Amino acid sequence: MTVVLYWMSISHPSQVARKMLELKGVEYELVDVVPLNQRIHLRLAGFSGGTVPALKLAGKRIQGSRRIARALDERWPEPPLFPADPALCARVEEAERWGEEELQPIPRRLFRYGVARNPELRQWVVRAQHLPIPALTAQAIRPAVEWYLRTVEADGRRASEAGVRADLAALPALLDHVDRLMGDGTLTLDPPNAATLQIMASVSLLGRFVDLAGLVASHACAEPARELFPRFRAGLPPFLDPEWLEPVRVAPTT
Ligand SMILES: N[C@@H](CCC(=O)N[C@@H](CS)C(=O)NCC(=O)O)C(=O)O
Fold first, then answer.
1. pLDDT in the model for residue 130
2. Deepest of 97, 118, 136, 222, by most Cβ within 10 A of its Cβ?
3. Which residue puts its alpha carbon closest to atom 2 of ligand 1?
4. 64 in ligand 1 pocket by Cβ < 6 Å?
């Protein structure tokens, strides 16, 4: 059976879908989608939506990390992404929903804000994606990047200064919640369930922002997130206003 994953390495939900395929031992083909070209590329590939991850599986086209989790579990039940126990399964499903709707938008929004507002970060991204003529390309993509600032995510926020500052204010409590979900056994590691993967991909990407690395590292979830998603290793250079970072500052340990 042909399984094709359309993805972008910088996209954390794409990393979730790839990790699920790997855990299930499925042979798959990977198609790199060039950032900012998702909508065109995926429509040309026959998908109805314009976001990665997008999966072709047995003639079906499936988009969205949560839908992909269910499609993979149905076709390859082992190892399961959802526990058999109904009460535990309900907790995992709720944590997965929370991970997608509340945590997943944050790194995406910070990234979009930074790429639109910070020319150095824009050039860094262009270089990291191996796009040609970095200085010129960084200028050329600006209108598309500006357009993405207006995207309203599931949590109702967009990549404005207000949205970014609200994210930074919310982040410490969100990471505390991830630690609690680990502590109460909702997020399992062996094997990782659908909620673990959904949430840890976001934690791993957040830890890659130099501006947030200290806050993420001060949480128990940092280590499993790094281990599950080692591909997010290089650091995104600092780009957030130091004043805005007050809520995410961690007291130095003595
Ligand atoms: N909640 C969706 C998010 C999908 C999504 O927004 N993907 C981003 C990359 S992280 C994308 O492709 N955006 C392109 C666009 O919105 O045009 C999921 O979990 O799959």
1. 81
2. 222
3. 64
4. yes
Token pair of 108 as six digits: 């995406």
Q: What are 32's two structure tokens?
A: 């790199």
pLDDT tens per residue across span 190-216:
999 999 999 999 999 999 999 999 999
Token pair of 207 as six digits: 């830890």
Distance from the alpha carbon of residue 62 to the mean position of ligand 1, in angstroms: 13
Let me know if domain 86-248 sits in CATH 1.20.1050. yes
Which atom of ligand 1 is least distant from the CA of 154? 1
**pLDDT over 90, % of the chain:** 82
| Domain parsing of the chain, residue ranges | 3-75, 86-248
**Does residue 96 have its Cβ closer than 6 Å to ligand 1?**
no
Show the tokens assigned to 36.
């900012």
Q: Tell which residue, 32, 25, 29, has the closest CA to residue 8.
A: 32
The answer to whether 196 and 228 are in contact (CB under 8 A) is: yes
Architecture in CATH for domain 3-75: 3-Layer(aba) Sandwich (3.40)
Question: Model pTM greater than 0.90?
Answer: yes
Q: Is the CB of 163 under 6 A from ligand 1?
A: no
